[in-house]
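Example 3.
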Amino acid sequence: MTSDQSRKRYLRQATAAAAFMGCALAATPGQAADRLGVTLPTVNGPWYTNILYGITDEAKKHDYNVTILDAGGYANVDKQVSQMQTLIVQKVKAILLDAGDPAAFNGVVRQAKAVKIPVVGSGSPKVASNVEPDAAASSSHCNIGHEMGKGAKGLLPNGGTLAILAGPPAGFWATERLRCFKEEIVGSQIKIVAEKTSDQDVATALTLANDFLQRFPNVDMLYGADDTYGVGAARAVQGAQKCGKTKVLFAVLGVEAEELMRAGCVDYVIAQQVVLIGRKAVQQADKLIKAQPLEMKLDEVALVEVNKGNIDKIDKSTIQAPKGWSPKL
Amino acid sequence: MTMYSRIASEASPMVVRHAPLGRLLELLRRYGRQIGLPLVLALLITFFALTSDVFFTVENFRNVGVAAAALAAVAFGQTFTILTAGMDLSVGATVALVSVVAALTMRNYGIAAGVAAALATGLAVGLVNGLVITRFKVFPFIATLAMMSIASGLGLQLAGGVPVPGLPEAFGDLAYELVLGIPVPVLPALLVLVVAWLVLDYTRLGRRIYAIGGNEQAARLSGIDIDMVKLAAYGASGLCAAVGSIILTSRIASGQPSLGASLPLESVAAVVLGGVSLFGGRGSVLGVGLGVVFVSILANGLNLLNVSSYAQMMVIGAALILAVALDQMLISRRSGG
């Protein structure tokens, strides 16, 4: 290649990169008068899609704009802390927080409270390990674990072997769920033969579940921390043609989970009313902004048990966003 | 007459007609490396200041400083390795491992012991990288990629796959305190910058690092102990990553075994944007400081504009390509190609 051609190639590369940067920077500028800030560890997965639907739809009814910042993964705890500080600087009216690791948020939640920005737990009762939220709407992760434990005992009344897809390594919600699940199955004949954390990604969960099925071909049940892991597990069971033989249970009912349950590859789901959680978080924030009293500071939203027998009878409007809806990020 | 000089001579009448523009272009051509990034940074700050009414505030700049501090420490360490024409891809995993070690030590033996253990761990990882590269002649990209996997696994193993809580509250509070109006996390980063600058610009080790990056064969023939210098460079990278980890661990008040995942890309981006050549031997750690400021302000501004983290990843990647492409253009122009 001649030097002239090299120079032209580099110029093309530089121009393309600059144009790309310009396009990516063309985002919504400025801020509205009343704005809610939402900070999440990730938006990957049906749970986050559903809660964002609840939040944005409810916020529209109350005339709020919403700034959504996600850290891009549970591992990016420091980034989520920075993003929350950004929301504080932006002087949003309230912050809806789903803390990836509550232990990391004590300082920044105190910062928000110091400037009178209410912090509402959205999907988790804890926003920081040593600082109370101003309000929270969630289901108790421990209750989810207990209900999943009851479901496991129901599916395996005579006991059996269980492999666990434990969730993301840094996920407080997953750890809490699993802790209480294990408490619930104490004394039963259910034996845990494998347990592993992994990234919150269906493909990774599928690979992990396949590994479990290879190592333990006769495993009776796979546990998924949420539906990302559960769907991965169900697909692995489907691929191994063991639907119905190897039971699959998890929390959170997404669209794919529903389809797999109808296909007979998912046996039991504890569904959180995720859309309702999002709505309640916004309602609480609205009351705090207007200095109105809260009915309940920590609003625990009821869980819904879903199985093949009732999948078509339950009201999903509080559980899932309308089909095809996706958050505008 | 070369193609380039023919083009230059043919362009002369146009340059004469458009003298101010021609002078500006000549200025950019001659001093592009020195003034390019400050100019772009000024434009970026102006853009964000116009599009967000909270960008140009003391509070926001403090946030930028705190967010940039860990990246700065890691990037200054990365500078040492890139100047030797190498690269340290294990910085992110080192940060995670150090975070876990610091947290486990701190909650049992106190802050001082935790910090000492953290620095020792970072240094050890860096020295192992250096040994693998110099003794076993493994290519730096491969050696540090492998170390990334080892350090990451070790961190997760030590932590049991979950964050390590229970650090002394005073350590976590440090990240939110100010000294003379400057956030505390910025201070160790500034210290690392000063030390790195002094070492690279005013010590024999620094000159040798540049010499090896410029022409390793010539450096060897002139009697420089290549292995020792590279060992020192990778040790410095590990030590600086440890400082970055201490800053981050204080900010999140826990040991996180998955911390620092984006740091390899961001630190290399900051180093290259700051004018250090990926081929080694050229660039200044002060320029890297500007590179860090650029990356941090870009991320902060994009957050204020509500740009998603996925788009931010694309922008930083594009910025890296742009910086390397322009760097390549300058190199080929200098060499008369």
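Chain A has a mean pLDDT of 89. DSSP finds ten helices and twelve strands in chain A.
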